[in-house]
Amino acid sequence: MNRDMATGISYCRPMKRLRPPALTLTGCVAGLLLFGNSPALSQAGQTRIDAGQSIEVAAARLEPGDTLVLKPGIYRQSVTLAGLRGERKRPITLRGEVGAVIEPSERDGILIMGDGRSEHLVLEGITVRGAKRAGIVVNGSRHVTIRNCSLIDNGIWGIQTIMSDHVTVEDCQLSGSRTQHGVYFSTTDHPILRRCHIFGNAGCGAHFNGDVSEGGDGMITGAILEDNVIHDNGKTGGAAINMDGVDLASVRNNLIFNNLSGGITSFRGNAIREGDGHVIADNTVYMRPSQGRFAVQILGAVTNVTITRNVLVAGRGPALDVESDSVPGITSDGNLFYMPGTANVVAIDGARMDLGAWHARTGQDVRSRTVNPAFANPAETNFTVTVKLRPDQLPIGYQPRAGR
Questions:
Q1: How many other C-beta atoms can be found within 10 angstroms of the C-beta atom of residue 54?
Q2: Which of 309, 320, 255, 302 is nearest to 280 (CA)?
Q3: Do 130 and 236 fall into the same domain?
Q4: Same domain, residue pair 128 and 248
Q5: Are residues 51 and 10 in the same domain?
Q6: Residue range 137-164, pLDDT digits in tens
Q7: Which of 73, 311, 374, 392 is deepest in the core (most CB within 10 A)?
Q8: Are residues 104 and 38 in the same domain?
Q9: Mind listing the pLDDT tens digit for each residue in 385-404?
């Protein structure tokens, strides 16, 4: 058994260290503030500023390959980055040193705008806390990476993206959003969310929303969600991973526990249609007894959805919740299902049934089992599976992948 000393979470397989709750990283923000002295150019391509200077003014002078470094301090300002263009091999980087914290003066922290003109930007080591709306907003931009950032106690979202393709959020903490979600990808193709620690948000941990009213095709295509730890979200509703109109989503190796609503869901709300082509594999989902709802939910006439090698423990359940329209498009096998006090772990159109009835009706889950995984100590976030099964019966569940 291995235990991550940063999060206190134990696992049954060797794990790579997560990089969540760094509460003293750095940040940036949205509005128009001009103040302070001219930024100091400390070395070729790198500018260093302190909390008495304008991030926005300094950033406007950056060229491809340049880096703006925020020194420790409280930056009480909001920052708009408009039309800032790096290059694929020479991105523009905003980096916060430990102790540099943005407390926004306006509704957002960093607002990246561009109508397609802002691109190849990297934000790293940035803490934004207490924004009225969002810590970071990416609007009409592309190829933006948000790395090793902390978005804490913001009003609506930690991060929101709108009509901005190829946005990567990795190794971040997204916590304490007061009314909605940790991260909200809206009509954003090829988003990546990986190795993040997402917790304590009022709504979803991660919400993916294809929205036909925003323009484009009204869908999200090519989402990757992997190696995230997502817990204690959903006080006002919303799944840990909430996918509205997402095509070709890869949902792999996520640990989801103690959420107050659902685990992983795919449906149509604001999108033009249901999403297709999901792979939901190697995840561990745990809900406390009599708390939370489904572990995995698939709604609507989907196609090519694969559910495999997951450990799915529901609270109020069911562990797998589908509609009759969904069944022809689902391939499910090699999973471990469990709900305390009942064998009826699957539901079709709300009618609950055991795994044998589910298999007889659909032909699915031939090698799946209904059994208590006997996690070593969920109360202490120890999700080591201790139940004894043959190796070919035991789903993989959550584990970091080699090279991650």
A1: 20
A2: 309
A3: no
A4: no
A5: no
A6: 999 999 999 999 999 999 999 999 999 9
A7: 311
A8: yes
A9: 888 776 666 567 777 554 33
